[in-house]
Design brief:
The complex is a heterotrimer of chains A (361), B (396) and C (78). Helix content of chain A is 26%, strand content 19%. Chain A is α+β, with helices and mostly antiparallel strands. The mean pLDDT of chain C is 83. The chains are: A alpha+beta (361), B alpha+beta (396), C mainly alpha (78). The structure holds protoporphyrin IX containing FE (HEM) (3 copies) and iron/sulfur cluster (4 copies).
Chain lengths: 361, 396, 78
């Protein structure tokens, strides 16, 4: 190997200094913003104590993007924003505009390129989602395809402000639930329904038995002797198909084409405004995978959204609406059957019963 | 360019108004040929309704135990381009602010050395470059490092901390989220690069109770901005809002503690009873502002379902004077964190998040371990069951 | 910690991990605890042991594995 004069290997350089990326107006008004106003579902303005105005145009993104996408948004930011832009927690792109005159031309350019402007105010926010079949091995479903199908159907609610409050939808393809999926207005979660299969031969080589046993939340994994050698067995009576064991032990695959699918959860939120943060609750225990467009999931989400839109008061999040009308009515309105699966039987299950005579009859 | 694989199912997802990830993968494949094989394999998943990635396999760069995740195709002969399809996590710029120069260079790197695909951003907030092989990893790492960026967390380590846009572009921010996020990332770089914990640990910083980064639902330590003194009221602006909508119904009546009311035309707030939920300030941003004595609450223990069920963050420190502590490089906070990590090291078991540990040993044991006193803000209400375990009082 | 002690600690760690490959997955904290016991008489601190671990990793004598949680192991080609 021809050893050239080698550059010193860079390592442990730490987080980049964000100050380099703040526009002059942001630097000047850092910590001195006075208020903001939403102009339309794609645009808002932040007004500083100094009187400076910073316009933000928000654009939807699928999160998984190509280099070409990155160059597209850079072209726009160079043309109108002095090269400054940011991303939101929910994976949108935000263009930061100092000159009001640039707002409308920028939006026109984005539209001409086929991108979507919206996501501010009482809208359906961009769906936070996970990797799915594109990049994860524990997935019970794809992520991007379900998200695309739901967003196509709810597109009008991203670009127009016509809901009682904001609706945050999230997607996770397994119970790891990357992201704040378990506390969303509507959560779509990949669900396995069969216990793991055990490949005893591979298990001996690949897996550490004590940590595999410890991985199980329901103590369903027990040591076992297989062909005179150490192994494990699964108590299928108590297994809840969570896939935690597979995470620790690759010889216990749980994916199952016929039996994997999605569940729908509602009424969670993370913001502390008005009511405390809360988890989403089960609405539909299982909908089979139906690629490429998952019509069952799309319809379920649409049904919830329609009832919410009809019934909620202005400013009420989905969970606040359900709290007011009660769960029995939620199931009646949506037509979703209430089943034995809706009654909790895990840790803390007892805390979820109705200890009162209250019932809306 | 002819298509290497037929993808009739994925093609369905190129239709419709929402931006299509399939088109994005195709655009990436135009620049980085290997990504055609990704389309092929994903199409196969769509047909079989099951994913086709192998479990396990390592990828990484020298000296680091984190920052790369290894991914291997189940069908390396059929899809050689994604035989190895690893991803690299990169610590983002705080608040996700960038300039185009950096982003363009990153796009180039992703096409030259990987699959031409990126995530902005991952669920913990890393930038991700997808689709590289192990032999390319070092080159990508060095190219990224030359741009002044480092790898993020993965595995049982401190995950890449993240924060809201805070004071850079939000009038609600009660402290400088970006500053503390960067500072602690820098401080704990070793914990981030070299996994040494029982399991993952996350910090997230939100400037106010709106909690835009969902810290209370998904970080072991959540920092949520708050204030101690009175909400500042501009009565003229209140009157302006009152002309536009029913302030009584939509703001006052929804205050969780009913601590605000009108006296004649003037808004009055009983600040002692305000729980700083942000509702009124959200609705009347021109009229109401948080007070001047600002800081943040610290919540502990949030996590997703695996292994023992999901948890929300619970109140640990109602008011942390972060703005004051910032002047001492956050010394008070660092000593608290160090106590916590020591306790977790000592008593936690493998794959046990700190919230689960607290659930197992009890909050009192944890508080004793880290040197905090029990206070009523920590509970929804005092115990209602009579099974009290009295202990011998050591002083007596 | 002298270089000599460090060498001793490193050898001990490497021996331990090698011996248990395929039987037990050591997290770094397990190793720190083991070594604290092992070298209690020499007054080694956690940081000393962590420094030794870091050396081993920089020299790629030890690498990280991942199976639901991170652990240390020897490189596959050895
Ligand atoms: C091989 C194993 C795992 C890998 C590669 C992994 C990777 C990740 C990644 C990449 C993220 C997004 C954050 C980031 O950018 O760093 C994440 C988030 C998350 N992971 Fe893990 N993870 C693993 C195992 C688990 C397990 C076993 C659980 C649960 C017990 C879990 C729970 C979560 C949760 C709840 C989040 C989202 C919360 C948040 O964004 O803060 N992960 N994980
Ligand atoms: C048992 C193993 C694993 C578990 C439990 C797991 C869990 C997770 C979780 C919870 C996330 C967060 C989701 C998100 O950001 O969208 C995640 C993300 C991710 N995982 Fe996995 N993962 C596992 C293995 C892997 C492996 C082996 C790879 C790659 C080779 C991988 C690649 C990724 C990537 C690229 C992300 C996205 C990270 C990000 O968005 O920042 N994961 N995984
Ligand atoms: C602070 C402690 C306690 C208080 C104030 C308390 C009070 C009471 C009261 C008011 C009743 C109802 C009596 C009646 O109206 O007929 C009751 C019944 C009972 N208590 Fe307690 N109790 C306490 C602790 C306990 C404990 C520690 C146990 C057992 C471990 C216990 C077991 C029972 C039983 C078995 C009954 C009968 C329940 C029934 O009616 O079927 N109590 N207690
Ligand atoms: S939710 Fe589950 S399947 Fe989806 S990316 Fe996360 S770990 Fe993988
Ligand atoms: S799937 Fe979950 S419940 Fe079932 S054996 Fe595995 S870890 Fe236990
Ligand atoms: S969390 Fe609060 S301070 Fe931070 S961006 Fe959201 S509203 Fe603003
Ligand atoms: S912040 Fe919340 S609790 Fe405080 S006055 Fe406003 S609405 Fe009421």
């Amino acid at each position: 190997m021809a050893e050239e004069v080698k550059k010193k290997r860079l390592t442990d350089i730490g987080p980049h200094d964000y100050n380099e990326y703040l526009s002059p107006m942001i630097k000047n008004n850092y910590g001195k913003w006075a208020y903001h106003e939403i102009i339309d579902p794609g645009t808002m303005v932040h007004v500083a104590e100094s009187g400076d105005k910073l316009y933000t145009v928000r654009m939807g993104s699928p999160r998984l993007v190509s280099g070409s996408f990155v160059r597209d948004i850079c072209d726009i930011a160079d043309k109108y924003c002095g090269g400054h832009l940011r991303f939101t927690t929910r994976n949108n792109v935000e263009f930061l505009i100092e000159d009001e005159k640039n707002v409308e031309p920028l939006k026109k350019d984005i539209a001409a390129m086929g991108y979507n402007v919206g996501g501010i105010g009482n809208i359906v926010a961009n769906i936070v989602h996970t990797q799915g079949w594109i990049h994860c091995h524990t997935s019970a479903s794809d992520a991007s395809g379900v998200v695309k199908s739901v967003m196509d159907e709810l597109y009008e609610y991203f670009v127009e402000d016509k809901l009682p409050s904001k609706v945050r939808i999230a997607f996770a393809c397994c119970l790891n639930m990357c992201g704040s999926v378990s506390s969303s207005d509507i959560a779509i979660v990949g669900t396995h329904r069969k216990p793991p299969r055990i490949d005893a031969e591979r298990l001996r080589n690949l897996c550490e038995i004590p940590s595999t046993i410890a991985a199980c939340p329901t103590n369903s994994i027990r040591p076992d002797t297989v062909d005179g050698k150490p192994g494990v067995k699964v108590n299928e009576e108590t297994c809840v198909f969570c896939g935690s064991c597979y995470t620790v032990c690759p010889a216990m695959p749980i994916a199952n084409a016929e039996n994997d699918g999605l569940s729908i959860w509602v009424g969670g939120k993370v913001s502390n405004a008005r009511t405390k943060p809360t988890f989403s609750k089960l609405a539909i225990p299982f909908i089979p995978n139906d690629p490429p467009r998952w019509p069952g999931v799309v319809n379920a989400v649409k049904t919830i959204l329609n009832e919410y839109k009809k019934g909620a008061e202005p400013g009420e999040r989905v969970g606040e609406w359900i709290d007011r009308i009660g769960w029995p009515r939620f199931f009646k309105l949506t037509g979703f059957p209430f089943t034995k699966y809706h009654i909790d039987d895990f840790r803390l299950a007892e805390t979820t019963m109705n200890y009162s005579s209250h019932a809306r009859l | 360019m002819g298509k290497k694989h037929q993808t009739p199912l994925l093609d369905e997802l190129k239709k419709g108004k929402w931006i299509s990830f399939v088109k994005e993968i195709e655009r990436a494949a135009e620049k980085s040929e290997r990504t055609e094989d990704l389309l092929g394999q994903v199409e196969e998943s769509y047909r079989d309704k099951v994913n086709h990635w192998k479990h396990g396999g390592m990828a990484g760069v020298k000296g680091y135990g984190a920052g790369m995740v290894g991914r291997f195709s189940e069908f390396p002969e059929k899809y050689p381009g994604i035989k190895e399809c690893h991803s690299m996590r990169i610590i983002p710029s705080a608040g996700f602010f960038y300039n185009t120069d950096f982003l363009r260079k990153l796009a180039d790197i992703s096409e030259k050395h990987a699959g031409g695909l990126l995530n902005f951003h991952g669920a913990t907030g890393n930038i991700q470059i997808l689709g590289m092989s192990q032999v390319e990893a070092e080159d990508v790492f060095q190219a990224v490092a030359e741009l002044g960026f480092d790898l993020g967390g993965s595995g049982s380590d401190l995950r890449t901390p993240s924060c809201c846009a805070g004071q850079a572009r939000c009038e609600f921010a009660n402290y400088d989220t970006m500053k503390i996020c960067r500072h602690l990332t820098e401080e704990y770089l070793d914990e981030l690069h070299r996994p040494a914990f029982n399991y993952k640990f996350k910090f997230k910083f939100s400037g106010c109770a709106n909690d835009c980064v969902a810290s209370a639902a998904r970080s072991d330590l959540a920092f949520i901005g708050t204030w101690k003194d009175k909400i500042k009221i501009n009565q003229d602006e209140v009157k302006n809002y009152a002309k536009k909508f029913n302030v009584q119904k939509y703001v006052l009546d929804k205050c969780p503690t009913k601590c605000m009311w009108f006296e004649s035309e003037n808004l009055v707030i009983d600040d002692e009873n305000c729980v700083k939920c942000m509702h009124c300030i959200n609705e009347l941003p021109k009229a109401l502002k948080a007070g001047d004595e600002r800081g943040c609450s610290i919540l502990i223990g949030a996590k997703a379902p695996l292994v023992t069920g999901p948890r929300m963050g619970m109140m640990l420190v109602p008011f942390y004077d972060v703005n004051e502590d910032a002047k001492n490089d956050y010394e008070w906070l660092k000593s608290l964190i160090s106590n916590m990590w020591e306790f977790w090291d000592e008593y936690g078991v493998s794959r046990e998040r700190i919230g689960e540990l607290i659930g197992r040993v009890g909050l009192n044991t944890f508080l004793e371990g880290i040197g905090l006193e029990p206070i009523p803000e920590m509970v929804e209400h005092p115990r209602s069951n009579p099974f009290i375990k009295f202990t011998e009082d050591e002083e007596e | 910690m002298t270089d000599e002690t460090k060498k001793k600690v490193e050898d001990k760690i490497l021996g331990l991990v090698t011996e248990y490959v395929g039987k037990k997955r050591f997290k770094p904290i397990d190793i720190v605890k083991e070594m604290e016991k092992e070298f209690a008489s020499e007054g080694l601190t956690k940081d000393d042991i962590k420094a030794a671990l870091k050396d081993l990793m920089d020299e790629e004598k030890l690498v990280y594995g991942y199976a639901g949680g991170s652990f240390l192991t020897v490189p596959e080609n050895k």
